[in-house]
Amino acid sequence: MIARYTTTAMEQIWSDENRYQKWLDVELAACEAWARLGKIPAESLKNIKANAKFEVRRIEEIEEVTRHDVIAFVSCVGEYVGDDARYIHMGLTSSDVLDTAYALLLKESGQVILEDMKALLQALKRRAYDFKHVPAMGRSHGIHAEPITFGLKFALWFAETKRNIKRMQAAVEAISYGMISGAVGTYANVPPEVEAYVCKKLRLKPAPISTQVIQRDRHAQFFTTLAIIGGTLEKIATEVRHLQRTEVLEVSEPFGKGQKGSSAMPHKKNPILSENITGMARLLRGYCLSSLENIALWHERDISHSSVERVIGPDATAITDFALKRITGLIEGLMVYPENIARNLELTKGLWHSQNVLLALVEAGIARDTAYAWVQRNALPVWDGKKTFKELLLKDKDVVGTLGQKRIEDLFDLSHHLAHVDTIFERVFK
Questions:
Q1: At what angle do helices 94-130 and 16-36 cross, to 10 degrees?
Q2: Residue 307: inside a domain, yes or no?
Q3: I need a labelling partner for 403 at 20 to 30 A (CA). Which of 137, 179, 271, 410 fits?
């Protein structure tokens, strides 16, 4: 596990103690199911439940000899239980325990991630309303396009995060399946009633069909969802990085007292939080690919997926948890500079009104190609000269002759671009 990126909650979930406890929960639930079927005496079950426990160090010692983790675990538990240990793991194969327990671990992790996203959602909503009516330049291809409001950026991320919450809920549902179906999924030595009891006890659903493993398309959906969440976080981080560039400087990340930006240049304030999140998103996409490759196993099972999942389970969930907490803190502490936003809005001297003028000419009866040419011949010189777009238009006989001076003046009203902001906010935050 990448310990540096592990929060306390996620570290506890993926600890050896919790992992083995989940194994024990599965084994004890199976024993209870067998007892209900009359296959384990009541006194034996009582003894098993009273004394079944484990010690991580002892499991590791046994595994050094057996080279099999589940056998080592069962042997360790058996040392505490005594003769009744013969009933533990009865009719089960290792994957019955491993896959059912893995579902529990992913489910727990998914719940932590869902809570993280709800916190991010609230932070985005607050900042969206903070800047709901602050005009800002919208950009396409990195070039000034037409005005938006700065709050719309946060509203956009809010809507995407809501979709990610739905995706994560669906992924948790997809992964919340257990199985107790035996060596190749045929229930030859353990009846479906045991599986049904175990899954109900552990708040999982029985897989309708399995082989020796739960099918890995379920896991792939889970890890793909984490990658999509990572993509959203990278999207936010990339925007912050662009907006913090010296030439733009509409925002900057929070910069703590005593923080240093560069070992060589004392003046630097770098977007390190956003850059860090960008890197973590790349990891999540890599883990997603690994989970997709786990879907195709040989026949009823091989173990090529096992080593992969030992890494991507804890790492992907821990990184997602960490990245969500980091981006939430970034959003809450983001420094926004309205004066720079206003300055950037005027950099292109009104060029962003060009579409208004084009449409007005078309409505006045000018052919679109002709209208486009008239507007463009006045727009392009603005990039190289000192005159504003409106000044040039007011000297163009064709444009003035068609629209008149007052109509041209009216077309340069900023409110035209922002007239439907309230409608957008109502749709996003209703």
A1: 120
A2: yes
A3: 137
Instruction: Quote the distance between the C-alpha of residue 50 and its chain's center.
Output: 41
What's the CA gap between 210 and 135, in Å, rounded?
56
The enclosing domain of 110 has a CATH number of: 1.20.200.10
Alpha carbon distance 345, 332 (integer Å):
24
> 3-state class of 345 per DSSP?
helix
Q: Output the DSSP codes for 185-201.
A: SS-SSS-HHHHHHHHHH
Structural domain range at position 375? 351-411
| Residues catalogued as catalytic | 141, 262
- Measure the CA–CA gap between 223 and 171, rounded to whole angstroms: 8
The answer to whether 374 and 398 have CB atoms below 8 angstroms apart is yes
Q: Is residue 218 part of a domain?
A: yes
Domain stops at, among 286, 314, 342: 342
* Cα radius of gyration rounded to whole Å, the chain: 30
Interval 7-34: pLDDT, tens: 688 999 999 999 999 999 999 999 999 9
Would the pTM count as exceeding 0.90?
Answer: yes
